Amino acid sequence: MSAGSVILINLLKVKPGKQEALIALLKQSTDTVISTLEGWKATQLIAAADGAGVVIYSEWETPAAVEAMRSDPRMKAYFPQIIELASLDTILGAAVLRETR
Question: Quick check: 11 and 87 in contact, CB under 8 A?
């Protein structure tokens, strides 16, 4: 993780049986929109083993880059589709500790 990265974490509680569809939609939005945006650094999708949730962990250069993503019309077109499959909570912050072995 790069110093100074802004971390955006989206916690999605998936409607029953919809995890695979949600992951496919999130991958599509990452491939077609997110990865093309200025200030984007990385995205990871993490699927809950029980099928009940997905976490989107993404790194951005600045909070303004996150806001630009949220207001991008191409991304806004995905929001209703995502909400059809899951509820969403968001955390925006910075890494304060990273330990590895």
Answer: no
Q: What does the alpha-carbon distance between residue 25 and residue 45 come to, in Å, rounded to a whole number?
A: 11
pTM of the entire predicted model = 0.91
CATH architecture of 13-90: 2-Layer Sandwich (3.30)
Nearest to 78 by CA among 46, 39, 43, 31: 31
Structure tokens at 72: 């991008």
Structural contact between residues 77 and 7, judged by C-beta atoms closer than 8 angstroms:
no
Q: Residues 1-45: pLDDT tens digits?
A: 445 799 999 999 999 999 999 999 999 999 999 999 999 999 999
**Scanning the structure block, which residue is given the tokens 């590895």?**
100
Domain residues of the chain, as ranges? 13-90
Can you say how many angstroms the Cα of residue 30 is from the centroid of all Cα atoms in its chain? 8
Cα-Cα end-to-end distance for the chain? 15
Q: Please check whether residue 39 is in contact with residue 61, taking contact to mean a CB–CB distance below 8 angstroms.
A: yes
